[in-house]
Amino acid sequence: MSLIPLDPPRPDRRQLLKAGMAAALLPLSALGANTVSTRARIVILGGGAAGMSMANRLATRLSGARITVVEPREQHYYQPGWTMIASGLWDAERTVRANADFRPAGIDWLSQSAVGIDADARRISLADGSTLDYDILVVATGLQLDYDRIDGMSTDLIGSHGIGSVYAGHQAAARTSDAIDAWLASGGGQGLFTMPQTAIKCAGAPIKMTFTTQSRIKSVGNRDDFTLDYFTPSDDMFSQPWSNEFLKERFDRDGIARHHGWHLSAIDPQARQAEFTGRDGRTETRDFDFIHVVPPMSAPDFVKASDLIAQQGPFAGEWLDTDIYTMQHNRYPEVFGIGDVIGAPINKTAASVKAQAPVVEANIAAFLEDRPLPLRHNGYTSCPLITAIGRAMLVEFGYDNDMAFLPSFAFIDPREESWAAWVLKEFMLQPAYYAMLEGRV
User: Fold this and answer.
1) What pairs with residue 163 in β-bridges?
2) For residues 308-327, b (16+ Cβ closer than 10 Å) or e, as one string?
3) What number is the average pLDDT over the span 296-301?
4) 3-class SS at 317?
5) Interatomic CA distance for residues 338 and 50, integer angstroms
6) C-alpha to C-alpha distance for 237 and 227, rounded to whole angstroms
7) What is the mean pLDDT of residues 247-260?
8) How far apart are CA 27 and CA 224, in angstroms?
9) What is the structure's pLDDT at 17?
10) CB of 297 closer than 8 Å to CB of 146
11) How far is 373 from 366, CA to CA, in rounded Å?
12) pLDDT tens-digit map of 57-86
């Protein structure tokens, strides 16, 4: 039986919006949190989705604590919207807000970078040469984009020479859309879409960019004049099993060639050539008219240089050594991790942060009171997997039961492409995200 679904019936728009907003704006009080009195020094590294959520939650939960957020940026970026920008659907500025819009009152905000962690001394080194001591550390740094691991690649190239990349920022996403427009205007040619050899945030984004680019080609009306190839080092397309099989069949049906066991290792912008390296070390060079580059990713260098990095196993040397259920560090109990920086089999999405934040909050409160940690993260993550402009699948799953689906909305079937999932992506998830930053969900 084919895995390609038929068009499902569209739900009533008012029903969708009502249900979406109800889920988005569940008040924090519904969690039944008790206030904890403490004089602890709480340091949060990072003021992105994970860090800002924890700042707001802990400012509400802890009475008397000194909470310090270390974050050099003054602007907050809604990164889930960058695929919409690169797909030609959103203006870049729609994804930018001031951090001041979300900062809770009564905390210290250090507008500079952390450059080192001394886990034994419980001390953070800052870019200006000063240090910051902590009793509880929340590592919410996010990850770093390692474009320099692709020989010849630089973010300065995005938008020129047929090179795009959705990950390098909202303006880079806009330049990616421009590069796609230029390719469409050329009338045809070769498009390459890549996946790196490391874990990445929003693992569905490379697939979304492939599908939305195909939609734009079809809107021009000459799909047969364009060749699309997708390169991934994995044997799979996606970590969730059913979705993986669906995507393989869908790519094959749409004539998007799949190349498994290969990653992008070098690029020659002037020649418009890309080098791919296989599992056995062999290399192949491909010409392109457009290429979507997804860089390797890892924890920030100063985290990797610290004792907090995983020492063994699949995350060794690359990701924070965190218990994937309690979010507590495996060797330093006063340290908790959240968001993209942690070593986990899945979870590098904003939806994961939404699920992790109440766990980290409750477990920090319990740790401060010398109680057993009460909550466990089930690995929940979500990907509004865009399959065409105007259609998507809401793929939600977790660690257990072979990554079985964990649907949130009764009217959205995770096995069907639907307008409802698209509307959720385009209109509902951004308000829910901002509510998460404020600690309301």
Assistant:
1) 291
2) bbbeeeebeebbbbbbbbbb
3) 98
4) coil
5) 6
6) 19
7) 98
8) 51
9) 43
10) yes
11) 6
12) 999 999 999 999 999 999 999 999 999 999
**Distance, CA of 80 to CA of 381 (rounded, Å):** 13
Average pLDDT in the 293-322 region?
98
As a residue count, the chain comes to 441
Contact by Cβ (8 Å): 290, 162: yes
pLDDT at 237: 97
* Amino acid occupying residue 55: A
Looking at residue 402, what is its pLDDT?
79
Question: Between the CA of residue 125 and those of 103, 221, 269, 391, what are the distances in Å?
Answer: 23, 56, 38, 47
Global pTM? 0.93
User: Between 241-254 and 205-220, two packed helices, what is the crossing angle to 10 degrees?
Assistant: 30
Instruction: Name the residue type at position 140.
Output: A
Alpha carbon distance 141, 352 (integer Å): 15
Q: Judge residue 29's burial from the number of C-beta atoms within 10 Å of its C-beta, 0-12 exposed, 13-18 middle, 19 or more buried.
A: exposed
What's the pLDDT score for residue 10?
Answer: 41
Interstrand relation of 66-70 and 41-45 (parallel, antiparallel or unpaired): parallel
Environment class of 94 (CB within 10 Å of its CB; exposed 0-12, middle 13-18, buried 19+): middle
Angle between helices 350-368 and 429-437 (to 10 degrees): 20
pLDDT score for 263? 98
The continuous run of DSSP H or E covering 17 comes out as helix 13-24
Q: Residue 408: which of 441, 434, 437, 439 has the closest Cα?
A: 441
| Nearest-angstrom CA–CA distance, 106 and 60 | 10
Answer whether residue 197 shows pLDDT above 90: yes
Across the chain, mean pLDDT equals 93
| Contact predicate 399/324, CB 8 Å | yes
Provide the 8-state DSSP code for 8: P
- Given a contact cutoff of 8 angstroms between Cβ atoms, the answer to whether 202 and 349 are in contact is yes
Token pair belonging to 401: 């039961």
pLDDT-based confidence at residue 172 (cuts at 50, 70, 90): very high
Rounded to 5 degrees, φ, ψ at 428 are: -100, -35
Q: How far, CA to CA in Å, does 168 sit from each of 125, 139, 237?
A: 26, 22, 22
Model pLDDT, residue 1: 30
